[in-house]
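Table S2 (text version). Query chain:
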Amino acid sequence: MRRLAVTFARAMLRTAYTPLSAVWALTYRSVMRAAVAWLRRQHRDASIYLKGSFATREEVYGISDVDLVVILPVGASAKGSAQLSARESWKQICRRFPLFRLVIQHCWFYEEDDLRKSLSASCLTYGLAPSGDGERDDRPAFLGKHPLHDHMGLQTHPILYGAHDEWRVLSGTDRLPRVASHDAQSRRIAAWLDLQYWWRHAFQACVDPTRDHVPLLCVKLLAEPVRLWLWVDRNEKVATREAALRRGLTEMPAERDALQLGLNLLKALPNSPRPPLSEVIAALLRQTERLALLMNAAADAAGCVDVKLIGREEVARSTGAVSGELLPLADWRARAVPSMPDEAMMLIEANAVNPAFLAATANADNGDTVPAFRYNSILFMPTTNPERGILRAVQCEPTDPVSMALADGRAVARFPELAGWSAVHCARRAVAEHRAWLSANGGAYPPHGWVGMQSACSEPSMRTMGLLFTAARAALFLESIDEGRPELAVTVAGVADCLVARDSSCSDVVHSALHDCASRATESPDPNHVAAMLDVVRNLSAYAGSSVVSMTAR
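Corresponding structure-token output:
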């Protein structure tokens, strides 16, 4: 069945720009109508949207997939249960009618409340209480008893212009929340997270350039950075990839050859042309630097807070198959939703950045140490696993000041005074996630695939001990900012030193817990050590007074 589908898709692609395209359009519309009709029978009050290339009417038959979003009204059932039931029903109907699964790549289900919250802000600023509101804790997005059910990843990859601009309603009442306006910083955040998304796809294409979708992906990798630059710099929306390439010819004369390559490639897609990855990667690198310059300019204008980095000399991790400088990884993701107490990156020297080098570096990702390399003012973290690249993939100093400082050998990270990237916002978001985890008794597994991977551990009680250390790091980071002496521990040993320096009476407890973390490969931590470390953590000022409860060793 799958082989037949691939053959049929290639036939559609070869004739995508011929009169037969009318037949393919009818075929896709028929499948979509059948799917919508079934969904409406199952969920009468649901609203169904089309997103992606078909929504913007720039589909290429044989390559483009149909993506649907189903919004379920808030009901009387337990939170998340309606979404879960709907997803299972969809899986069953796809097993009965494989054509649905072949044509409709994704069918996302959201309860209305979860969608509204997921669209409200990126994960960098989501849930932050208004400044000076001491009555409310910041809300978590990923951890705890009530994380967002954001299976599309809208928090980590916001819709650039907003759902109203990029989704098309197929059936039901319009349930999309209205966005009054996009301020300059929200545009920067959305653009950089979108850039990370495209780099994750670029890494995959470099590893396997023979896949049928790669020529179209090359068009996107040339066009999308133009849209991002126009959105950040000009507050200008561009509807389609072709329009972006043509707009770029006017605004970016230095990129004329690359942009014209994109237009020529778009016309040649039915012929399955060889993907010009070398030229595309080179152009994408230049456009990434162009966007980074905008981020740097905004950071310079806003001013920065210098944060002292503690424990940067100590990282315990196997080096795997690559050689380079082993450094702590204490970026936003490691601070807020860590996979282990000491994450690490291997800084590799990059003499030339091309598809072969990106493929080799991405393949060196061993799941323990993240390979990374510098390209001028940019830091890249290639991986073959798209989920491991979420909130990483590519960074500049304003978006990841800690990793950039460590890569430069500096003991101070410069956090820009910009929403979502500022030291205080980063600290508050990390505290919010860890507070929710502590309040959930340390045992709630989140619904997100990448977060579940982050939180997974062969020994749950060791996961608990590790997260107690990262919870302490978040609290100490916020406390140091409030006290006007910003500092961040980038390793577990650094956290231990900061805890003992703050209160010497906890020295025995902290060092016993530190020993348990160091022995994670051979034994489980002592349950008494876990309980004692919990007492230390929950008495930190960031968690004192919150609904943090005791937990049993898990």
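Notes on Table S2: The longest strand covers residues 104-111. The first helix runs from residue 2 to 14.
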